[in-house]
């Protein structure tokens, strides 16, 4: 029996645990590609609660849990009592008596924290307004695959040390999580957002604070990209902010990742986007569909890293 551990924000695990998880994800991915059975979670059930839409998170968690030998229960606000005002605390007590693990995609971070405080089983953040830790887990694993040690040995997170990630766009859940990851794993994030859409530094810092040399703000997105090893962006309007769409389209017009911005980055810089993407808005088609883009690996890797995460939260270190 492992101690109860939740994954509600990136800072819930430490650098040592990340090094283990990335190594484990690489092994789990290799087994998946070879059709080699890996069933550590037989008889375990994952409850997935979606209060917002999803393609990647739904498929990666559901397929991933079955591949680990377990099963899933899928709930949405519309088809459960969550949408009829049953208190989140009561829902947590009930759902966590019948399942072994819970993944939640919702609005306020406070809601997932209230759920976790009343849960008997680990809770995973599948995206909130404030954070998207599973996505950054996949993004960093993808960076390691492309830029890490070719033989896959050694501390896999070492390849991130001293590297620069350029974030171009909204100061949203993804941006906050990148800032957390940079402080924890020893790389730097250059953030460029339009005025009024900056990250909330207190929120991004979480409980551990932001180390001064891991975060820098740029009002000019081109400057943020200069010399970067990875350029990344996200939709201008996140789920839950649709009413601001027209105002955002105007404010973000200069925050479209184009070939010029990619040219300002390192010649071998990678491009990432958590998807879904809007070509012609936050990214030019030539960039997302171009040779530096690794967005399809990034999307696939959601499943492999989350399988490693679920295994870790339920069984602890197994290797
Ligand atoms: N990137 C991501 O979380 O995608 P979905 O919204 O499709 O789950
Ligand atoms: N920032 C986006 C990410 C979608 C995966 C949103 O919250 O809608």
Overall description:
This protein is 40% helix and 13% strand. With 319 residues, it is α/β, with parallel strands linked by helices. It folds into 2 domains: 10-131 and 299-315, Rossmann fold (3-Layer(aba) Sandwich); 136-295, Aspartate/ornithine carbamoyltransferase (Rossmann fold, 3-Layer(aba) Sandwich). It has a 5-stranded parallel sheet with strand order 7-6-5-8-9. A 4-stranded parallel sheet has the order 2-1-3-4, with helices on both faces. Strand 1, helix 2 (56-67) and strand 2 (71-76) form a beta-alpha-beta unit. The longest helix has 21 residues, at 295-315. Bound molecules: phosphoric acid mono(formamide)ester and norvaline. The site of phosphoric acid mono(formamide)ester has 8 residues, from helix 2. Phosphoric acid mono(formamide)ester binds next to helix 2.
Question: What is the helix content?
Answer: 25-40%
Strand residue percentage? 5-15%
Classified by CATH, the class of the largest domain is: Alpha Beta
Number of domains: 2
Low-confidence stretches: none
Molecular shape: globular
Sheet with most strands = 5 strands, parallel
Q: State the CATH superfamily name of the largest domain.
A: Aspartate/ornithine carbamoyltransferase
* SSE string, helices as H and strands as E: HEHEHEHEHEHEHEHEHHEHH
Mean pLDDT: 96
Bound ligands, named by name, code or SMILES: phosphoric acid mono(formamide)ester, norvaline
Number of helices: 12
Q: What is the CA-based Rg, rounded?
A: 19 Å
């Amino acid at each position: 029996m492992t101690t109860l551990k939740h994954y509600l924000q990136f800072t819930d695990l430490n650098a040592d645990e990340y090094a283990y998880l990335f190594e484990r994800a690489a092994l789990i991915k290799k087994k998946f590609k070879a059709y080699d059975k890996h069933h550590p979670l037989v008889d375990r059930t994952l409850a997935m609660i979606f209060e917002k839409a999803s393609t990647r998170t739904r498929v990666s968690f559901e397929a991933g849990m079955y591949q680990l030998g377990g099963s899933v229960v899928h709930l949405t606000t519309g088809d459960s009592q969550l949408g009829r005002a049953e208190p989140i605390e009561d829902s947590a007590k009930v759902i966590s008596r019948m399942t072994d693990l819970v993944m939640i995609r919702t609005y306020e971070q406070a809601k997932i924290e209230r759920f976790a405080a009343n849960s008997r089983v680990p809770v995973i953040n599948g995206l909130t307004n404030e954070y998207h830790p599973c996505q950054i887990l996949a993004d960093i694993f993808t960076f390691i695959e492309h830029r890490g040690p070719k033989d896959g040995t050694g501390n896999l997170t070492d390849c991130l040390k001293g590297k620069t990630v350029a974030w171009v766009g909204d100061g949203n859940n993804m941006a906050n999580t990148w800032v957390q990851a940079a402080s924890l794993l020893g790389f730097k994030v250059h953030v460029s957002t339009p005025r009024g859409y900056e990250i909330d530094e207190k929120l991004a810092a979480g409980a551990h604070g932001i180390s001064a040399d891991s975060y820098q703000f740029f009002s000019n997105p081109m400057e943020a990209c200069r010399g970067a090893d990875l350029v990344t962006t996200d939709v201008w309007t996140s789920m839950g902010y649709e009413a601001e769409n027209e105002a955002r389209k105007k404010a973000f017009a200069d925050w479209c990742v184009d070939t010029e911005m990619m040219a300002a980055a390192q010649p071998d810089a990678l491009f990432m986007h958590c998807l879904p993407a809007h070509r012609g808005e936050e990214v030019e088609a030539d960039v997302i569909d171009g040779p530096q883009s690794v967005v399809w690996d990034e999307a696939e890797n959601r499943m492999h890293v989350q399988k490693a995460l679920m295994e870790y939260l339920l069984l602890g270190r197994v290797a």
